[in-house]
Amino acid sequence: MTETNTGAAEVAAPHRYTAAMAADIEARWQDFWDADGTYEAPNPSGDLAGDTAIAARPKKFIMDMFPYPSGAGLHVGHPLGYIATDVYARHQRMTGHNVLHTLGFDAFGLPAEQYAVQTGTHPRVSTEANIENMKAQLRRLGLGHDKRRSFATIDPDYYKWTQWIFTQIFDSWYDHESKKARPIADLVAEFESGERTTPSGSPWSELSAVERAEALGQYRLAYASNAPVNWCPGLGTVLANEEVTADGRSERGNFPVFKANLRQWNMRITAYADRLLDDLDALDWPEAIKLQQRNWIGRSEGARVDFAVEGHDGEPVTVFTTRPDTLFGATYMVLAPEHGLIDAILPAEWPRDVPQDARGLWTGGAATPSEAVAAYRKQAQSKSDVERQTEHKDKTGVFTGAYALNPVTGSRIPVFVADYVLMGYGTGAIMAVPGQDERDWEFAEAFGLPIIRTVQPPDGWEGEAFTGQGPAVNSSNDEISLDGLDVNEAKSKIITWLTDRGIGEGTINFRLRDWLFSRQRYWGEPFPIVYDEDGVAHALPESMLPLELPEVDDYAPRTFEPDDADTQPETPLSRNGEWVDVELDLGRGDGARRYRRETNTMPNWAGSCWYELRYLDPHNEQQLVDPAIEQYWMGPREGQPHGGVDLYVGGAEHAVLHLLYARFWSKVLFDLGHVSSVEPFHKLFNQGMIQAYVYRDSRGFPVAAAEVEERDGKFFFAGEPVKRELGKMGKSLKNAVTPDEIAVEYGADTLRLYEMAMGPLDVSRPWDTRAVVGQYRLLQRLWRNVVDEATGEVTVVDAEPDEATLRALHKAIDGVTQDMAALRFNTAIAKITELNNHLTKAGGPVARSVAERLVLLVAPLAPHIAEELWHRLGHSESVVHQDFPVADPAYAVDEAVTCVVQIKGKVKARIEVPPSITDAELEALAMGHESVVAALDGAGIRKVVVRAPKLVNIVTA
Asked: Which structural domains are found in the chain, ordered by start?
C-alpha cells in the first residue's frame, strides 16, 4: 500500500489497530500496571507481604539468567528468553498461581572497567546509565516483573550479603564423615580436645597463631594458597579454568594464558564433587547440560599409590591411577612441570647411570638437572593444556636425575618431567605403563625406556600399546600374583595388597579443580578479609559489612605484553594506601590492631551465585533471607526433592560456570542452615539464539544489513555485490535490530508474538524483519473481530455461537493450554491464529463468550492489546489475574475422525467416524462399506484387527 493509500485507509478506518495506536495502548497499560502494582507477588510474611488471597495460591518462581547491562543496549536477540518467561509467568498467574517473576542486573565485571580505563568515567556511572537504558527497553516490551524486587549486584546493600556469604564459606570446613559443611569453630574444638589430630601432628595448644592459621587453611572452604594458576598478562589478571578457551587463551580478549605460581583465593568446590554429581539426577535439566557437568566434574575410580624416591627422605611421589592392576608394568614416572616436589628431589648433578646413547635427549644438553628442569619449565609454560595433551604430537620431556622405586617390583625407575602430564588432573604425577597406554608408549619409544606388557593382548597384536581388556601377565612377585586375573579382579587384589602395606589405597578422583576466586580487578566485590602483622587472614564481622570499594585514580590493573609470562599481578586497589592499611577492632577481644586489606576482588560470578535468594526478600537488612519466605518460594516439595526455582531460563553456555558455582554456594548455605533448598534451580530450560544474516563486501568486512538490496536472489550494497552468511546479531556485524525499532514500526505486542512464533524456543532461528508483519496482521484481525474500525464501538453480540465455532474455540483452548505448560509458544500462536481466522471467515459479529475467551488466550502473549480489549468488553479488573479458559472436552475433540480400512496392507476405504466409536461398531461399519465388500469379492477372512477410531486391517485367508 502506498503512503497516500495508507493515509486514506486510516481516514476511512480511524479506529484501526496501527503502530501508533499500539504505542498509545502499550504506554497507557504499562503506566497502569506500574501504578496498580499488578505484578507484585506477595510474600507470606515480611515487608513484601500483601494480598493474602494471592499468597494462599500455589507458588511459582520463574527466573531469567542475570543480564549484564551493556552500553550498546538490547538488540532483538536479547529479549527472547525474557519474553518467553513473561508469557509463561502470565499463564501461570491466570491458572491460579502466586507468581514471582522479576529481573535484576549482574553489574560487576570487565566491560565497565575497560570503559572506565578508556574514558575515565567511573564504572558505577556508566553501569547505572546502562541499567536505566535497559530498564526502559524492557519496560517497553510489557514484561510483568515485580519491580520492588529488582536490584543490581553493585548495590552495596546487595554485595554486603555476597561478602557475608564469603565469610560463611571462609569460616566453614567440609566434614567428610558427616558429608556436609560445618563451622570452622567445630574443627577448632576438635583440635583443642585432641579428637582430631592437627595436620602437623603437634598439639593445638603448642601451635603459634600462624601455624594454627595454616592448619585451618588446609580445611577451610575458602582459602588462600600458592598454586599454579592461569595467568593472563594481556589482561593483568588470573582466570578460572572455565574462563580459558580450549586453545589456551582468555575467553575475553583472546590473550595467551600461562601457568604461574601465585597466591590466590580459592573455593574448595572439590569437596562437593560427589554431591554435585549425585544431585543432578533429581533436577529437571536438559540431559546435555547434565552431561557437561558430569564430564567437567569427571569422577573416576582407581587407586592412590606412593612411590618412594631413591635417596630422598621426604614425602613420596603419589600418583592416582585408574589401572592399578598394571603397576608391574610401570617402567618410569612423569611429573607435571608445575609439580611441587620436583625441586626437592633434584640431585645436584646427573647420576652416572644415565644411558650414554640417550644422555643428550634425557638431559636436554643441560649441565645439571636443575638447569634442565628450569629450561623445560619455561618451554612448557607457553603451551596451553590442550596443546600439551594433543595426541600424536612429539613427546618432549627431561630427566630429573632422580629415581623412584616401583613398589611391587622394587626396580629403580627414572623420574621425568613432561608437559603431557597436567597438574589439573589427579596428583600431577603418573606411573608410566607404556605397554597399556598410548601416550606412555610414544614417550617410552622416544626416550628409549623399557616397555613391559601387563595385560595379554589378543593374538596377532603387535607393536603398540594395548588398552583393552584381557588377563594379567608379567604381574607377580614373591608376595602377590595377578597373572591370569581379569582387570577387575586384578584391581581389587592389588588395591588390598597396597592398602595392607600402607603404600596405597583405593580412591576416587575428580577432574574438577578448586575454584580460583581472585581477580586483579577494581570493578568487583572487595573481599571482606584483612591480614594481621603475621599475615594471618581474618574475616570482617558482619557489623563492618558492606566493605565498599574505595575511589582510585587508575581503574586498570597493570597489564603486560601478552606473551610476557614472567610477570606478576598488580591490582588497582593496592594503589590506595589509605584504604589498604587500616586500624580496626574486629571484636575478637584484642582491641584495635593494624591490618592490611585484601587487594584482589571477587570474580564476576560471585554476585550471580545467590541472586535467586535476594529476589525473595530484597529489602532484608538483618539476614540473608527470612527462612519462612525462602521455604515458601524455594523449599523442597513433591516432585522437587531438592527445592529450587521452578523455572530457570537462559543460555547453555553457562553449563560449567555459573550453574556449577551457584549449585556449590547453595549446598554450603544449606549445610550451614541458612536455606532449606539444596539446589538453586529445579527446572532449567535453555533457549535458542536469534541469529541474523551478515553481509560482507569483497574485503570480507560487514556492511549495514539494513541497506542491502536483494535482486534475483543476489545481494547488493551501494550497488556492489555482497555475500550473505548466517551468524550472530551484533553491533560489530552491522546487523543488529533493536526492539525499539520494531516497537515503533509495529508495536511491542507484535514483537513479542513474532519472537515466540519464530520456532521452538530451544532452537536457534534467523531473524527476518519482513516476516514480522505476519503477527502484526494477526493482531489487526483480532482487533477487527472485537472493535469496529470506523466507529471504535465493540461489535460482539450476546448470542450463542454455532457448533463449528464452539469446536474451533475449545480445540484452541485445549491446545493452547497444553502448549503454554510445555513452553511451546510457537504452536500456541498457530492455534490462536487458526481460531481467529475461523471467526474472520465466519463473518458477522462474534459471540461475546467466544471473543472474551479469545482475548484471554492472547493475554499471556500480547498483554497490551488483550488488556485494552478486555476493558473495552466491559470489564473493570485487569486481564492479568483473570482465569485462563478451560476447554470443554465434548467440543475439544474432532467432530469426526478419518478411519483407514486396509486389506492385505493396502488402503481400500476411508470412512469418517465419530471419535467415540467402539471397536465392534467400527468393524461392522468397515465390513459393510461398499468398497470393502467389492475388494473382498467373497474371499475368506482370517482375522480383522481394529484400532478404533482410526484403523481397520483385514487379513484374508
From this structure: 1-30+782-893 (1.10.730.10), 301-509 (3.90.740.10), 691-727 (no CATH), 894-956 (3.10.20.590)
